[in-house]
Structures are given as C-alpha cells and as structure tokens.
Amino acid sequence: MLIKVTLAERYNLTNLSSTGRGKNVLLRQYKFPNVYDTERDVLCSDDEDRLMGWNQKRFIQLVGKHLWTADKSRFMWFMEGEHEKILAYLVDAMEISIGKKGRDARKWTGFRVLGNAIVSSGNVLITYQIFSRGRGSKTKVYTGFAPNVRGYSPAARRMETIMGGE
Question: CB within 8 A of 63, min separation 6: which ones?
Fold first, then answer.
C-alpha cells in the first residue's frame, strides 16, 4: 500500500521562535520520500522528548557520542551537519523505541527532522523520522526542499538551488 508522508512546513526564523506557531517545520531531510510503499519500505517516527523519557541515560549518552558541539545549537547541527552523522545519530536514538533488533534489521537510508512550536511553553518539540528504502522499491526520495514540503514547485526548487539551498 502506498502512504503519503505528512506535509512539512518550510523553515523560517519565526515559526519556531518562542512566539511561533510552526507545526511540522522542516529542519532537514535527506533521501526521504513523499510517498512510500509499506510492502517494501519502512518509516519510523518518534519525538525527541519521548525517546528521552523512555531511557534518559541512553539518550544522554547518544547526545554525547553523536551530537552538536558547544559552538552550535542542536537546530543548527540538524540543519548544517553532515547527512551521514545525522543519520547515524537518528538510527541510534530510534533504537530506544524500535529496539536493537529493529534498528539492525534494515539498512536505514534516509531521514527527516521536524520541529513543532509548543505555544504554552515556548519550547520546540523535535520529531525524528528515519526511512529504509526496501529491496526492489521504486520509491522516489528527496533531499532538502521537495514535494513533501508545503510550497514546493519545480520553479521554487530551482530558485532555492540558485540561492544556495540544498
């Protein structure tokens, strides 16, 4: 069965600020689908705070092992870090919810990181999504601004590329 992923919002400085109202704001995506085949592909999604709540000690170890340095916020690391390092972190972090067997059962090939403004607290909830494109899958995958982001069009994609986006 084909499933369409949740449409992401395009990032801007204000939609995740303390007064922002952004929902599913795209921080980064790499080799991530717009539509995927549930018979061949696998998509796992979980919220950062939930992963931390399930196993805080393990989560803090992963942050120390993989994540950002003191000179960058986690938002900047997700937005500017190397694809491979971000994917490695997300796969390890998702082990908390899918288990080691689930993590190791597939080759995880892509990811997406979304932010959601929490109006009542001014905080941002980060959602991790990892994707595995199965053997024989014809699922198209995208990096950066793509059809799974609100406002996408081929012309807008060309303009973003010209202006220095992904």
Answer: none
Backbone phi, then psi, for 154, in 5-degree steps? -55, -35
| Amino acid identity at 49 | D
The whole model's pTM is what?
A: 0.85
E strand map for the chain: 2-4, 25-30, 32-33, 35-37, 42-47, 110-118, 123-132, 141-142
> What is the phi/psi pair of residue 164, to 5°?
100, 10
The first and second tokens of residue 153, run together, are 């069009």
Length of the chain: 166
Res. 133: pLDDT tops 80: yes
For 141, the token pair is 């995958």
Q: Which residue(s) pair with 118 in the sheet?
A: 123
